[in-house]
Amino acid sequence: MATTSPPSKLSGIARMLVQEKLISEEEANTVQSQANTQKTPFISQIIASKKISAEKIAETSARAFGFPYINLDAINTDYLPAKSIDPKLMQANRVFALQNRNNVLYVAISDPTNLHALDSVQFQMGMTLSPVVVEDDKLSKWIDRIVESKDTSMSSLDVGDDFDLDMGGNDQEDEVEIALEVDDAPVVKFLQKMLLDAINMGASDLHFEPYEKFYRIRYRVDGELRDIAQPPLAIKDKLASRIKVISNLDISEKRIPQDGRMKLTLSKTRTIDFRVSTLPLIHGEKIVMRILDPTSATLGIEALGYEPEQKEALLKAVSRPYGLVLVTGPTGSGKTVSLYTCLNILNNPSVNISTAEDPAEIPLAGINQVNVNDKQGLTFAAALKSFLRQDPDIIMIGEIRDLETADMAIKAASTGHMVLSTLHTNDAPSTLTRLMNMGVAPFNIASAVSLITAQRLARRLCKNCKVPLTLPKEALLSVGYKEADLDGSWQLYGPKEGGCEMCNGGYKGRVGIYQVMPITDAISRIIMTNGNAHDIADQAKREGVKDLRESGLLKAKQGLTSIEEVEAVTNE
Questions:
Q1: Across 140-149, 286-295, 314-323, which has the greatest mean pLDDT?
Q2: Among 76, 119, 131, 434, which residue carries the largest CB count within 10 Å?
């Protein structure tokens, strides 16, 4: 029997409920009028009238409009996507994010006909939306819960008694500190919670970012930035002042960048340092905090991911009484941890070790660490000159930035000192040509440089949920595998879509990818004859040195990371 078409003034959910014969046209019109009067959504009004249950409406609308239906009771709030929707937008449009897959944001909505709401959220997020129908009453509770967690009620936050922030001798007035402690106790507790959460998540950096209409906090976890919280905009100045006080920075100076440090004591046996950097923006000060965990220097070389032959070559080079060992790679590739690991191996009472850093990131007992200060004239080159008058055995220079520092490092390495340093280059062979371009004489490079290691960090596949992959032979050959590699004796793995409760999207932690190139006699001859990076790379390959892509593919072959990660971090 054909159904009578409802009047044209009914639309969306109301029209669907009448067509499905769950309510009459008269009831729909009455509820619509009540909703208009009370300025509430039709779906909320019909549920409040008890004419039909929220569950029935959700199931029916999902079926009628062809969208998936989910019971929110089965969802854990801890695993919502980090890229969340702005709380005000969430409340206004009654939509919140459920999952992010391949740049498609799955959103919970009780009225899938509310296209205006979906368009508003899609515009703000810059992502394709895929609606999932949920029960309206449960949706309201979830939105309230999510918004409340990002709201002004921070005074209830508790971080325990073992947490302590050590300001390490602040020169500012004690009254400033006391005022911040007493008047802004919620801010203090909020900051403590942010720091603890970052450490528990394994974050490397925290970003506090003020914008015109919102304030955002992000963590860098496994190399990727993730939205964590959007506290009230009014908190930005108090939070910046609190961070400055505990980092020995000038709270009255908001016009220039500042750098400082702070210490966090988790327990009697564990202390973590933070390197703090402020930057004036047009809407306030952005603050970035780098987490410096001293335990990263004591992991041991086995934990860094070197292959056996690479580890052997590196240990042989740093164990020599003299020579220059260089670690290269972009910012955030783990160069500092590699250098500190080598220093920790060499650190014993029989040697004198001095380091010049900008700044010293990880305190190591038994090592003389100096923070360079360009404004005061304490440059890397000046520090190196002073070291050479201090009877050193091993010297570490944070970075070779100019010809003066490079020349002094070369001379120190040639006169009976082991020197370790870093450069920003793409791979090991190009490091040698970079030194020549700086103006270092080729014969000095050939005689002083012992070994160069280039490195990258790739996300490590989660051991708990990684899934086996089968790729066609042509695809494997195209990424760099050889015919001989495809013998069927190994299995490729990839991240599980969405990950699991123990990881971040199928990845947990990172693994190093290395190109370890000893400077052999043959490579020295190429340097002496002004050979270029291609000539050096060809010779290194003939000597069995794996480039970064080959080392990465080996990590994928071992099931430690995915092909996608290898391509991402070694795609020069």
A1: 314-323
A2: 131
Encoding tokens for residue 403?
């010809």
CA–CA separation, 87 vs 145, rounded Å?
11
CA 491, 497, 503, 505 dihedral sign is positive
* 3 contact partners, CB below 8 Å, separation of at least 6: 19, 21
Tally Cβ neighbours within 10 Å of residue 276: 21
Structure tokens belonging to residue 388: 């050479």
Rounded CA separation 335/356 (Å): 15
User: At CB < 8 A and 24+ separation, what contacts does 270-276 make?
Assistant: 270/295, 271/166, 272/199, 273/361, 273/362, 273/363, 274/195, 274/247, 275/359, 275/361, 276/243, 276/247, 276/249
pTM above 0.70, yes or no: no
Closest CA to 426 of 569, 225, 223: 569
Task: Give, for 533, the enclosing helix (H) or strand (E).
Answer: helix 533-542
Select the more confidently predicted residue: 323 or 36. 323
Are the beta carbons of 118 and 67 closer than 8 angstroms? no
**For residues 215-232, b (16+ Cβ closer than 10 Å) or e, as one string?**
bbbbbbbbbeebebbbbe
CA dihedral 225, 227, 233, 234 (to 10 degrees): -90
pLDDT of residue 272: 84
Model pLDDT for residues 41-99, shown as the tens digit of each residue = 888 888 888 888 888 888 888 888 888 888 887 776 655 665 567 777 788 888 888 87
d(CA 402, CA 374): 13
CA 397 vs CA 247, 287, 348, 546: distances in Å: 25, 27, 19, 26
d(CA 319, CA 322): 9
